[in-house]
Specification:
This protein has about 120 residues and is mostly helical. The protein has one domain: 23S rRNA-intervening sequence (de novo design (two linked rop proteins), Up-down Bundle), CATH 1.20.1440.60. The chain has 4 helices and no strands.
């Protein structure tokens, strides 16, 4: 039974993703400080929006889930940029995008089915 936002699978996945994102971003060159900052903010925003919206009305929570999905999409875009400027390897890119995509699909499903 879900009694708190931390009981949600999507919240737990987002919290597991965040340290992985930070660890990858720490390896960026100093010239990419802006990209590192944006990546960390987008990753943090996913779980924060889930937590902030939980316990509100159904419509409001779905809006917060939509924001979390937006942050998830933003995160993917930033990692595409990081790969394009060779801040991460193909292997790192593929692995992190796979995790982000899994989270994204679960967010979409939760938003669709939340009542």
């Amino acid at each position: 039974m879900i009694q708190d936002f931390s009981d949600l699978d999507v919240y737990q996945l987002a919290k597991q993703l965040y340290p992985k994102v930070v660890k990858l971003a720490r390896g960026f060159s100093p010239i990419s400080f802006h990209l590192r900052d944006q990546i960390c903010r987008a990753a943090n925003s996913i779980s924060a929006n889930i937590a902030e919206g939980f316990g509100r009305s159904t419509a409001e929570f779905k809006n917060y889930l939509t924001r979390a999905i937006g942050s998830e999409n933003e995160l993917k875009s930033h990692f595409e940029d990081a790969f394009a400027v060779e801040e991460i390897t193909r292997k790192q890119f593929d692995e992190i995008i796979e995790e982000i995509n899994i989270l994204g699909k679960k967010l979409y499903t939760l938003r669709k089915n939340w009542k």
